[in-house]
Amino acid sequence: MEVQLQASGPRRLLFFLICFFSGLATCRSAVDAPPTLIDSLPGFDGALPFRLETGYVTVDEENGGELFYYFIESEGDPRRDPLLLWLPGGDRCTVLQALLLQLGPLRFIVEPYNETTIVPRLQYHPYSWTKAASVLFLDSPVGAGFSFSRNPKGYDIGEVSSSLQVKTFLTKWFTEHPDYLANPFYVGGSSHAGKFVPFIAQKISEDIEAGMTPTVNLKGYLVGNPATGEDNSYEWQVPYLHGFAVISDQLYESIMENCQGDYTNPTNALCARDLERFDDLYGQIEHAHILYKKCDYVPPGPIDPTTERKILKEETRVLKHQPTCPPMDCQSYGGYLSYYWSNNNNTRESLGIKKGSKDEWVLCDENDMPYASDIEGSLKYHRNMTSKGYRVLVYSGDHDANIPFLGTQSWVRSLNYPIFDEWRAWHLDGQSAGFTITYKNNLTFATVKGGGHSVPQYQPERGLAIFSRWISGEPL
């Protein structure tokens, strides 16, 4: 069941007044389609125990590019609790991964799925980050998840342009939701989102300094197991996997001697030989969490790279590309279920998905659309934002072999800030749950014991603990 929300008279009048006096041509489409308030979802028994709103915001008037969002109010005090914008990692990966597999209030029930099942079942997730904040999950960039462009040219974007579109999205969303302007506001993301989260935060801060409206109450940002663009994760994988006994002393020492720190472009035959052996051993483990079962991943996008991604004339009930079914004890099984849930017509109708906007929903669509990697590195944005006094949390699951905590700890330390709170354990239920250090300029780095590449997916209780304490200003 869904209820269409009509913008109230005063809010709509405020919106048009802001657009008129500021001359924002891009304001035109923000109120074309009112958001959808959802009280139930396919696969979940009964009414949702939280407030869920979905909708589209046009961020590219010329090409008709629209970003799709899921807004879930805090389960505490939504009028006072912080508001978190959460962005997906990976090139054109959907934010639904975070909502249903990681930090949202719903998760799939792990059970066999076949064609006789109407839709995968969902259950309430007790360690949702919505316990501590309202979360605005955004399918960005255009082409990710249910976001789309009417003109195929709208898919030709990159990290910089899509980040600026996020800023456009926020301007319009807050104009339509002025009640949240006073709430402490944070930007967050993990993995590849580590490159553009601090960039977006800086652009928002620049608008605040320039007196742009609406003025959000930006307090800081957080990144988990983040990429930066400068650091070479492969470089840190060598000592990390040596420490975990994946590679031997002999191979480690040989790599150190023969490669001289260059692990991506070997300059001699001995280094190339060592790295080939390293890759073979690295391939024996689950990269996202070295202690977990090595599993096949659900394909990241359409198998056929020529698949049409334009506005289509009709919906389809059948997946054109069946995802690989992993064993149920694999972490990727939830991703497998998400294909069938998201491509179900009842689900699309409940979420308010525009008919014809998306042919086949996929977790990540990296195969057939351009995406420029044009943010060379994020360290300068981290430095700029922390120097302005914004709060920053950088956290890492200590069992992630994709982006090892060693590399993250190294670049955090390279910012050369004085230490405010020395390295120590942080605790949950009387036991150490990880380790943390806080620097001056409000920068905190923390590890999560047992966490993988996406802390809340592998350690949901510890993930909620570190998030709720930090965002409320409490010591870890």
UniProtKB/TrEMBL annotation:
Molecular-function annotations in GO: acyltransferase activity, transferring groups other than amino-acyl groups; serine-type carboxypeptidase activity
PROSITE patterns in the cross-refs: CARBOXYPEPT_SER_HIS
GO biological process terms, semicolon-separated: proteolysis; secondary metabolic process
Domain of life: Eukaryota
Record key words, sorted: Glycoprotein, Signal, Zymogen
Leader sequence residues: 1-29
Homology family: Belongs to the peptidase S10 family.
Protein name per the record: Uncharacterized protein
Organism: Lolium multiflorum (Italian ryegrass)
